[in-house]
């Protein structure tokens, strides 16, 4: 029973450090949404999403290999690792591909919520600046590297959360007179 409880604690700890669900942004006035959509076009949004997806898939596949093998006594066979990575890739591509229009619309709404129509128009104009164009080109790789950095920090926090939760369960069970098994 206690072993199942520890697994449940580990799952709960994982939930504590997972990303929050995206809430639907408030609906700003149509002029702001239209300006945000023009900004996304000026940013070459669809291409940006494609490049970001490629970077995220590559980073996720790398992380899967590192994290799974770190948790096991021996490395997984290469063919199994390849299969697991392919599953992750398929799901990531599907998550974005199947919801591309929703993602673009939601992104436009987010921009429209944070910027006025005039500001969005100005941002669209800035997209033609060579430095801004370079930033847009580099942004997917920067985002993937930032995600990897964040994942490392979250993984270290997760271990501490799991350890403290296990200690709390052991303490609780010991005080109740039960002998926890680890």
> First CA to last CA: what distance?
10 Å
Average pLDDT number = 82
Count of alpha/pi helices: 7
How would you sum up the major sheet? none
Number of domains: 1
Strand content: under 5%
Specify Rg, calculated over alpha carbons.
22 Å
Order of helical and strand elements: HHHHHHH
The general outline is elongated
> How many beta-strand segments?
0
Query: Helix/strand/pairing class, anyone?
Result: mainly alpha
- Low-confidence runs (pLDDT<50, min 5 residues)? 1-21
Report the helical percentage.
over 70%
Strands, helices and their partners?
Layout: H1 2-16, H2 30-42, H3 45-71, H4 78-97, H5 100-114, H6 117-126, H7 130-175
Keywords:
mainly alpha, 7 helices, 80% helix, disordered N terminus
Q: If you had to describe this structure to a student in words, what would you say it looks like?
A:
This protein is mainly α. It has one domain. Helix content is 80%, strand content 0%. It is built from seven helices and no strands. The relative contact order is 0.17.
Compact summary:
The chain has 182 residues and is an all-alpha fold.
